[in-house]
Amino acid sequence: MTGTAPVIDRLPGDRRYWFLALGVLLLAWPFLFGSFWARIGLGALMWIGLAQSWNMIGGYAGYLDFGHGAYFGIGGFAAGIAMVQFGYPFVVGFVLAIVVAAVLAYLVAVPTLRLTGAYFAIATWALAESIKQAALILEITGGTFGLSLPRSPDTFIGIAVPFAISETFFYYAMLLLCTATMLVTYYLFERHEFGYRVKALRDDQDAAESLGIDTTRVKRQVYVLSCVVAAVFGSVYAWYIVFIHPNDVLAPIVTDRMVIMALLGGLGTLTGPIFGGLLVFLLQRLSSVFLGSSTFYLPLIGVLIMVTVLFAPSGIIGILRGEVGRDDVRKNLKELGEKFDLL
Length: 343
Description:
The protein is mainly α. The chain contains 14 helices and two strands; from the N terminus they run ααααβααααβαααααα. It has helices at about 15-60, 70-85, 90-110, 115-135, 165-190, 195-205, 205-210, 215-240, 245-250, 250-265, 270-290, 295-310, 315-320, 325-340; strands at about 145-150, 245. It has a two-stranded antiparallel sheet with strand order 1-2.
């Protein structure tokens, strides 16, 4: 092992032990660090999962979906409507959120995935905005008043469960969902033939079709999968937060955060959204808690995005893998200086 090896490869020992240690730490997290850090961990896990859901369509398939956050809100409202308007337990609302998101995503995918580039981005953004405006006027979503969800022990499966529906319960629910999302991403996009088809479609659609890949079908499949994952997190979040409003769970900032997290971490990679999700979420939460400002992190994120785009297009994971060296930085600085007549 040389001194110039990537950071990840320079980790001592077998990587399995590092993953095992990380798993033990995550399982013991609420008991080791208390309620406050359990909430921080819960939020971080949720945003890592959401960033990975956007990474499926944006990173692996190469489609810039600027309306992806709408499915987070759709999942929340589907679960909320099932519980509040029809009196079903959360489990039914959870399943309903998956079904509604899958059906709607497929119906949206048929016309919008014929578009590419900025046209697809604008179409999905407009879709998300129209869904938000509809939720603000529909009575079943609570309109401008929002929805307040019940959270007693008998609202989980319809009968009282022998454990508390507490913050610790939701922490483990998010840990389970985040782990499942990572495993699905690893299997489908890194090891399965499906992932190779998605990457071939992203790299060159004409070449992929010449090899016999049904690109239309693959695009619809990855879009529906990514939207369902976002809806799943939305349904659990709605039950956890108890109150949901269209201006919160359907806000454009939800999509913006997913995009930024995936971009900073590394597009089209398994671990990129983990690093990006942790970085952005912790900057936001810790600046709010310790500096008293909920917007202080925004300029920092802006600077990080500029630095990433200019010097490390493969994101944090690219730096850790050693894909960005000093020579690349010098070259980019030189080109930037020449472009703006600074040299």
